[in-house]
Amino acid sequence: MEMNKRTPLYEAHVASGATMVPFGGWEMPVRYPTRILHEVGQVRNDVGIFDVSHMARLEFTGADSGRFLDTVLSVRASRLEHGQGRYHMICNEDGGIIDDAIVYNLEADRYLLVVNAGNADVDKEWLSLQKGRFIEREGGDVDYVDRTDEIAMIAVQGPNAVAMLGEMTNGETDAIGRFHAGEATLDGERILAARTGYTGEDGFEIMFDSSHAPTIWAMLIEAGATRCGLGARDALRLEAGLMLHGVDMTVENNPYEAGLRWTVRPNRSEYLMGEVLRKIRDAGTSQKIAGFEMRSRGIARHGHAISIDGEEVGVVTSGSHSPTLGSAIAMGYIDIEHAELGTGVQIDVRGKTVEAEVVPMPFYPHSY
Question: Is the full-model pTM beyond 0.85?
Answer without folding.
Answer: yes
